[in-house]
């Protein structure tokens, strides 16, 4: 079977692109060939595209689809509505994996501008009171206006797809909330590719955060929690983002800058070492992650996790078995959980071992690939 992948990026940009590359590689032995089309405005990375039988920038999508003649189209990030309409009219079954909230929030992040509380509502007129129509952009004048009518039109076209794929029950429910046909929603939990070898390492006393340094990830809540913890542990922050300078200043103002290490981006191999050596990982997002791969990556390294109880965290977290769930936007609750784990090495070990067992049983690549291939081979017309 020939699969045509559609994604705006053709490089290792984020979790979506890593998923595309891993799955295209893993389905090849199952008899699938993979072709990729991407936005012509974005440069491609040969290390990313070599896994595909062919990779092309989108120039004339109608003629390109006709030339490739795929059996199925697998859409990921695609913001061009005209391209989506071309796919829908070509007569080839098309499915889409929903990696984020771009279709379900004018601000794209699903938390309120005022108060930063997590949002669980369906999009509607109330979004204007959240200032969701006003978005920052890197180009002049530094912002753009987004209108509800345009997003509603895009949602309507997405509902016409043959099938919708999500990584968590949270996201399945969110699609249904927005009028997607439940019978076409397929929940296929994500996975982490296991390391070539695994050995438990001697743990340090450090606490680890891995992710973008942006407001939705809740780093401000984490810094406040560290400042009020009884246990004075080192906090390691791996990642980058537009809020980094603000968070550095915040750490100074809270009097914890000597215990907070900003290490920037790391490779997947380097990050795995940090997972294996830290005491535990904190996942303090206020934005409801559609899955939350960081938590699963930590569990694969036998590392316990403290996570905000929002979004898709429940797909992998078993509270009080593999880690601790806390309310989002609550520094005191987060600090209490961090102190509890810091003071109890036996609890950390128990959570860590249970987390790795949960990962090995439920989140191996073959689990996802088998279900996905079965879907691809079914009658989706």
Describe what you observe in this structure.
By secondary structure, the chain is α/β, with parallel strands linked by helices. The chain folds into two domains: 192 residues, Rossmann fold (3-Layer(aba) Sandwich), CATH 3.40.50; 156 residues, 3-Layer(aba) Sandwich (Rossmann fold), CATH 3.40.50. The protein is 36% helix and 17% strand. It has 14 helices and 15 strands. A seven-stranded parallel sheet has the order 3-2-1-4-5-8-9, with helices on both faces. It has a six-stranded parallel sheet with strand order 12-11-10-13-14-15, with helices on both faces. A two-stranded antiparallel ribbon has the order 6-7. Strand 10, helix 8 and strand 11 form a beta-alpha-beta unit. Helix 8 packs across helix 12 and helix 11 crosses helix 13. The longest helix has 18 residues. The radius of gyration is 21 Å and the shape is globular.
What's the gist of this structure?
This protein has 381 residues and is of the alpha/beta class. It is 36% helix and 17% strand. The chain has helices at residues 15-27, 46-49, 61-68, 81-89, 126-129, 148-158, 169-177, 219-228, 244-253, 268-277, 293-300, 331-342, 345-362, 365-377; strands at residues 2-6, 33-39, 54-58, 72-75, 94-97, 134-136, 143-145, 163-166, 185-187, 207-210, 235-238, 260-264, 280-283, 305-308, 323-326.
What topology does this entry show?
Blueprint: E1 2-6, H1 15-27, E2 33-39, H2 46-49, E3 54-58, H3 61-68, E4 72-75, H4 81-89, E5 94-97, H5 126-129, E6 134-136, E7 143-145, H6 148-158, E8 163-166, H7 169-177, E9 185-187, E10 207-210, H8 219-228, E11 235-238, H9 244-253, E12 260-264, H10 268-277, E13 280-283, H11 293-300, E14 305-308, E15 323-326, H12 331-342, H13 345-362, H14 365-377
Helix pairs in contact: 8-12, 11-13
